[in-house]
Write a structure and sequence with these properties.
Elements lengths: L8 H18 L11 E3 L3 E4 L2 E5 L12 H14 L7 H5 L2 H13 L4 E5 L2 H12 L5 E5 L4 H10 L2 E5 L4 H9 L7 E6 L11 H10 L3 E5 L14 H4 L8 E5 L9 E5 L1 H10 L1 H4 L6 H16 L2 H20 L10 E7 L1 H13 L2 E2 L2 E2 L9 E6 L6 H17 L5
Parallel strand pairs: 3-12, 5-6, 5-7, 7-8, 8-9
Antiparallel strand pairs: 1-2, 2-3, 4-10, 9-10, 11-14, 13-14
Length: about 400
């Protein structure tokens, strides 16, 4: 394709992003896709030869590099090799896959579970497999992109209710035609804001209006509940959710996604879900790592205690400096900057002082809502958190984000 002599819509979109990235790089404001050279103990990384404190990781319990998890992955490679060379339905299912699914089901208090090659593929395929033309999907306005894409792909009537607004959700449920299948879908912890869905009210509404309930627990496993099992434990509502979706790549230091549910639902997904039928099985090392990680969470509850303490310290400290951290209650801590340029500049100042944070800007968030999407983990020391907040605070004052 000759970009200089072509002016169709595809070329214009590509060129617009090319120009934006070039401008950011020219002004030392581009921080995406940075290779991390080394992961160091204590939530530190080496990037471009510099040791930095990591405040952008999803490893909420600090399980990356855990000796038990590493050993399980190595043992799986010795036993099975590095790949499965097949899809799960045919020659790709190994004993470690069924063991992982049993572990997930026990952890999530369900009858059984199914695993997929990625969290994105899980939401995309599960929603589009369960729902179809003539059905209604009601989705929180701030749900993850994979949920949105699954809703669109399903062909169902797709309606979005205002963020965490249960009155608006009820209005939508009332307006679904009688007899139509309906599903309510929401994140448990919202990935850009860090707040928690109002699960008790949502469950009551789904029962009242006979709707299926699917909850994405990507950011709640290892974060919510005394044992870290997620949002049902947090609200003491085990068994309230029909379809519990989660990832294996955040608190769980592996890759993939899963659904935990009743046996009938999972059996249907095994035989009708395209991402399961037509994707290669999880590599043995990744399945074994995930399997062991769920066990470590239950065996080491002190990690959740430390995470909660560190979360309170980080949110409280940033608020006391004058930052707007929105409605977060969790380890995801948005540091509101306003315009995109301010978020890029704050990232630059922080990384130049060895605090690894990253910006989230439009269109990922609304215009004027650009932010640092900082995270804190159980592996951070309180003194390290204090230093990170000092750096963020000084940068915020320098840029006029806070006084």
């Amino acid at each position: 394709m000759d970009f200089e002599n072509t002016n169709d819509s595809v070329t214009r979109r590509i060129q617009a992003f090319t120009d934006r990235v070039s401008m950011l790089k020219a002004n030392d404001l581009y921080f995406y896709n940075q290779p991390i050279d080394e992961i160091l103990p204590g939530m530190k990384v080496r990037v471009r030869g510099r040791e930095m404190g990591m405040y952008a990781s999803y490893s909420y319990l600090g399980l990356v590099g855990h000796p038990r998890i590493n050993a399980a992955a190595k043992a799986a490679v010795d036993k099975y090799g590095t790949g499965t060379n097949g899809v799960r339905s045919l020659a790709g299912t190994l004993a470690i896959h069924t063991e992982l699914e049993e572990t997930i089901a026990n952890f999530k208090h369900t009858e059984t579970a199914i695993t997929y090659s990625s969290g994105y593929a899980t939401n995309l395929s599960v929603v589009s497999t369960l729902m179809g033309r003539g059905d209604y999907v009601l989705s929180d306005k701030l749900n993850h992109a994979s949920i949105v894409d699954g809703c669109l792909m399903s062909g169902a009537e797709f309606r979005r209710f205002k963020h965490n607004d249960m009155e608006h959700l009820e209005t939508m449920l009332k307006n679904v035609p009688e007899g139509a299948a309906k599903m309510v879908i929401a994140d448990s912890v919202f990935s850009m804001d860090g707040d928690i869905i109002d699960l008790p009210t949502m469950v009551a509404l789904c029962k009242k209006y006979d709707a299926w309930l699917m909850i994405d627990e990507a950011h709640s496993v290892g974060v919510l509940g005394e044992k870290g099992t997620g949002i049902e434990e947090h609200f003491n509502m085990y068994g309230a959710i029909d379809i519990k979706m989660g990832t294996l790549s955040k608190t769980i230091p592996s890759v993939g996604g899963y659904v935990a549910a009743k046996t009938e639902i999972v059996n249907y997904l095994r035989h009708a879900s395209r991402a399961y039928i037509f994707s290669a099985a999880l590599p043995p090392a990744q399945a074994a790592a995930a399997n062991e990680a769920f066990k470590v969470i239950l065996d080491e509850p002190e990690r959740i205690v430390r995470l909660n303490e560190n979360t309170k310290q980080f949110i409280g400290g940033l608020k006391s400096l004058g930052f707007d951290t929105m409605l977060t209650e969790t380890a995801i801590v948005p540091v509101l900057c306003g315009e995109d340029e301010a978020a890029f500049a704050l990232t630059r100042e922080c990384q130049h002082h060895d605090v690894f944070v990253l910006p989230v800007v439009s269109p990922a968030v609304g215009e004027g809502l650009a932010r640092l999407r900082a995270t804190v983990t159980a592996a951070h020391e309180p003194s390290e958190i204090e230093r990170a907040m000092d750096v963020i605070g000084e940068a915020g004052k320098k840029l006029g984000i806070i006084k």
